[in-house]
């Protein structure tokens, strides 16, 4: 009987969830796409709540109108999709797309880069804020506060799709993915969902509502960038690198995700360290 308890724990079964929620003829709704849509809508709704709460802003002066965010959501969606797809093509699989350029438009097959999507949204925020005469860093702060929810949902969708799985492991919660070979692996997608999604959202929520850091432009945005970068670098130690890239140094570390995330950590630290409280609005 004692020998039974010395046996290694069995891996957890992979939940056989269809990546397609519903399909009507050629039209298919994927969990992956729903994750992006729900994430964008949540960030929009959450940002509107932030900019209508006078307690969070210097002297109760609201920095923008909720209607501004209604218009910005279209800009954000375009920035996420174009930037995310362009980033994946350039950073992760350029030779393939040079050979098959039409595959660039097959976004339903997956292949989005967070780092590219971030650059796309930053460009969209910069152009939109200049057009509406809204402080760019303030727009970045209120948008980034709700982004982790979408990140978490997309990582869960990656898990459902059995993609971006982790390195081989014998931990009790390891999973044998259907397309991951005859190995049990870290469910690294769920690690990312927890850190980039839930934990990062709660940290930013603490900064916005308890520490009132929206009164200090670029601090919340810097915390988001730094927090994502640190989370991503940590999880990369458990995540299998993209097959077409592999490890960029040695045989067990330094991945493209680490390289792209390191400048984010540095930029985020710079933003938080140099952030200063916004000047109090002058009385009329």
UniProtKB/TrEMBL annotation:
It is a multi-pass membrane protein. A 1,2-diacyl-sn-glycero-3-phospho-(1'-sn-glycerol) binds at residue 155. Keywords: Cell membrane, Glycosyltransferase, Lipoprotein, Membrane, Transferase, Transmembrane, Transmembrane helix. GO terms for biological process: lipoprotein biosynthetic process. Pfam families: LGT (PF01790). Its EC number is 2.5.1.145. It is found in: Cell membrane. GO terms for molecular function: phosphatidylglycerol-prolipoprotein diacylglyceryl transferase activity. NCBIfam families: lgt. Belongs to the Lgt family. This is Phosphatidylglycerol--prolipoprotein diacylglyceryl transferase.
